[in-house]
From TrEMBL:
Keywords carried by this UniProt record: Signal
Pfam families named in the record: CHAP
Lineage per the UniProt record: Bacteria, Bacillati, Actinomycetota, Actinomycetes, Streptosporangiales
Leader peptide range in chain numbering: 1-36
Domain Peptidase C51, residue spans: 99-227
Alphabetical list of PROSITE patterns matching this protein: CHAP
InterPro entries per record: CHAP_dom (IPR007921)
Keyword presence, Signal: yes
Protein name: CHAP domain-containing protein
Length: 230
């Protein structure tokens, strides 16, 4: 999705405010949106900057309501294994859901394009976002269609690191780079295998499906840590 100049600066500022983190101006396109064997999205979180005490109380109250566990999120992600895209790279429930979401409007304001563009775009980040939303953990997992922005969200919220944990959001660079800007793909960590690899659940793999994979840690840029319930 090419960047459009028609979006006013005020809309971009609104999108950034809603995100609660710095967002990149990188053009969103089929090659820029997360792709299992092509290109990915976002990173770890720290508490957002609070405007005032009332906002602090609101955030604390929301935090106290967190009940979703890593195990519940992984169970939902795992239940989607086998879901496949169609011959033109679309047709998944994750793309349809994202294209209709409030977040799509915000990322369009940030990156340009239209809602229809998401229907056939690379969808690994949309899969992670869908799982978070349907599990009731959107505020912990975040949502975006661009893996780099998703990783930056985690990082800007102080929830990004280099230790694989079950339920963490893993960001890959196929080149082996450790830079967020080079992220190509995103998924969930199921477990650390203790041999230099991790078992993952990912959408939009090379076969255009949700799959369980074993990946080398050498391809991992970092991990986003959702604030799960204990």
């Amino acid at each position: 999705m090419a960047k459009h100049s028609l979006f006013a600066a005020s809309k971009k500022n609104l999108a950034r405010a809603v995100l609660g983190a710095t967002v990149v101006s990188t053009v969103l396109g089929v090659n820029a949106v997360a792709h299992a064997e092509a290109l990915p999205h976002p990173a770890a979180h720290a508490a957002p900057v609070l405007a005032d005490r009332s906002e602090d109380v609101r955030v604390k109250s929301e935090k106290e309501k967190i009940t979703v566990t890593a195990q519940q999120v992984l169970a939902l992600a795992k239940s989607q294994i086998g879901t496949s895209e169609n011959s033109v790279g679309g047709g998944t429930p994750y793309q349809r859901w994202y294209s209709r979401s409030q977040r799509a409007a915000e990322t369009i304001a940030r990156d340009g394009g239209t809602r229809a563009d998401y229907l056939n775009a690379a969808w690994c980040a949309m899969f992670v976002s869908w799982v978070g939303d349907k599990a009731g953990a959107r505020s912990q997992i975040g949502w975006d269609a661009y893996t780099v922005a998703h990783a930056k969200w985690f990082k800007n919220n102080g929830r990004f690191g280099d230790v694989a944990k079950p339920g963490s959001v893993v960001f890959f660079s196929w080149s082996g780079s450790d830079r967020i800007r080079d992220i190509n793909h995103v998924g969930f960590v199921e477990k650390d295998n203790g041999d230099g690899t991790i078992t993952t659940i990912e959408g939009n793999t090379g076969r255009g499906r949700v799959e369980e994979r074993v990946r080398p840690k050498s391809q991992v840029v970092g991990y986003g840590y959702p604030d799960y319930a204990a």
